[in-house]
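pasting for ref
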Amino acid sequence: MVFRLAILGGLRAFTTQLEIHKIAPDLKTVTELVQIVSPTEITDIMMILEAHNLKPDIHFFNMVMKKYVRWNQKKNARETIGILGRYHLNPNIMTWGILALAADTWIDAVKLLKEMDVLGITPNEHIMGGFLVNACRAYDPRYIVHLLEEHVCRKLKPDEVFVDRIEKFQSDVHKAMLDVECGREVRPRRLEAIVQTEEFNEYWMKLKLRLKTWLKEVGGVTKQEIPWGKDYDERLQRLKAKKYDIE
């Protein structure tokens, strides 16, 4: 669909064609457009909604925020939440999960968690996992230590993905430290400077010590829930029964 839109000359040319042929897009079409345009064209998308008197739903804004996060325009993603009230919309659990991916620092995460607390929203593992993704990308053991404590305080049980990501973080950092010690090249290069800072090493030690008892305190690991998993399995069995080639 991206290539088809490009063939038509981009978003504005596409909307011009709609006007010429007197075709009114529905909300589903406009939401699909959000996923294939650049973030700079989101304003044009909003103009299309207004021109056709379409009321956006929360799914539309979730896609807008997701677009901003993917293009590393996380400030815009966070600011989008302020537009919801204009349309009498409330964020859903997917909204908070996307915003978690926009929380680059622990301070951002604390702010988001407080906003959720005010609204009575309990963070799930997809949200906590979003925070962890950012913590690991930033090689920030302090961020991770705080996330461990949030699990304990909120009585949240981590899933396998969360724990696996922490283990990979430990493995990557340990390798980087060995490479520095042996005079080898460190990848990514920015990690070489990070692992040699006093602050990093302070929280790196705290993280290692905290992990020794943390899993026991939170009651172990739970299997990651996949909402569509059962339905997928059922459809898979039906396809096999019909002898379709799905291998």
